[in-house]
Write a structure and sequence with these properties.
single chain; alpha/beta; TIM Barrel; two-stranded antiparallel sheet; 10 helices; 12% strand; binds NADP nicotinamide-adenine-dinucleotide phosphate; oxidoreductase activity; AKR; NADP-dependent oxidoreductase domain-containing protein; oxidoreductase; Aldo/ket_reductase_CS
Length: 290
């Protein structure tokens, strides 16, 4: 596959975010974390019945084979999909990264990935520095990208100091950084840094794993727009330009989560939600990772 051949996932009619290499990525997709469960049927429903084209997963999640089955059963052609996977830190290193990439592709039944990223800034390998192992793994990703095996390469959970170091050590600036992002967790300094460096911003846990859905502020905004709290949070994230990947095991929630591209939040309501940041993480906090 040449990078020029498929500039946009065919069949995606919603908004897309243009990465620094010109590739356009759907702004909304589905996640597949193991916390709270995984449903192959829900992913199948998203792909086949809701027009979802972006699926985010990782080796760590452990659902690559189930995803391959859902993709096959959906009948959606590979070129219509945006598939993201992540390299787990225990595979950081040059050769190990390449081996892990090929294994993940094989498990998912695909020949290329649309986005492949370093999952976490820590290397989890005693005796070697995080910085050194990140750079080694990143060089492997750069080669996979140059070979056309990934349409784009990125990082996840990287803070400004990790990105600064990678910039010094490597040739390609990550196309994207995927970080926890919801009304309670708004890393605005990092978002501004990414914007300045041409790194697209992707948010994970847009519903704060469900914690934000009972917030009186969100419920009040939801009532105003006659939408659900989940739709308000997903809309807020998308409207702020973040690529957003809510996860649900329930078909009715999957359908609901994708009905957010047909309305807009007023500026005053965006500002109200922008003020909800309290710094809490519902996933992991990479702030202290060297
Ligand atoms: N890069 C990373 O390190 C990292 C870390 C964490 C997550 N992620 C990615 O981000 C994705 C999303 O994060 P997440 O799954 O942790 O959390 P999330 O999307 O914020 O929340 C998922 C929770 O919200 C519930 N939910 C979903 N839609 C709902 C709706 N419409 N109404 C009510 N409840 C709803 C789900 O329950 P039901 O199943 O009952 O609907 C589930 O318990 C993950 O799946 C993963 O792909 C990446």
């Amino acid at each position: 596959m040449s990078k020029q051949e498929i500039p946009v996932p065919e069949g995606w009619t919603g908004p897309a975010v243009k990465l620094s290499n010109g590739v356009r990525m759907p702004i909304l997709g589905v996640g597949t974390s193991q916390v709270g469960g995984f449903s192959q049927d829900a992913v199948l429903f998203a792909l086949r019945d809701c027009g979802v084209r972006l699926v985010d997963t990782s080796k760590y999640n452990g659902f690559e084979v189930q995803l391959a089955e859902a993709i096959r059963d959906s009948g959606v052609p590979r070129s219509y999909l945006w598939l993201t996977n992540k390299l787990w830190p225990l595979d950081y290193g040059y050769e190990t990264a390449k081996t892990a990439f090929h294994k993940s592709c094989s498990q998912m039944g695909v020949e290329y990935l649309d986005l492949y990223m370093l999952h976490w800034p820590g290397s989890m390998q005693p005796g070697r520095s995080n910085r050194e192992l990140r750079a080694e793994a990143w060089r492997a990703l750069e080669e996979l990208y140059e070979e056309g095996l990934c349409r784009s390469i990125g990082v996840s959970n990287f803070m400004i100091h990790h990105l600064d170091q990678l910039k010094e050590d490597c040739a390609i600036v990550p196309h994207l950084n995927q970080v926890e992002y919801h009304p309670f967790q708004q890393p605005n300094e990092l978002i501004e840094y990414c914007r300045h460096e041409g790194i697209a911003f992707q948010g994970y846990c847009p519903l704060a794993k469900g914690q934000v859905l009972s917030s009186p502020t969100i419920i009040q905004v939801a009532q105003k727009y006659r939408r659900t709290p989940a739709q308000i949070c997903i809309r807020w994230s998308v409207q702020n330009g973040a690529i957003t990947i809510p996860k649900s095991t329930k078909k009715e929630h999957v359908a609901e989560n994708f009905q957010v591209l047909d309305f807009q939040l007023d500026e005053e309501d965006m500002l109200v939600i922008n003020k909800m940041h309290d710094g809490r993480h519902v996933s992991w906090d990479p702030g202290d990772v060297e």
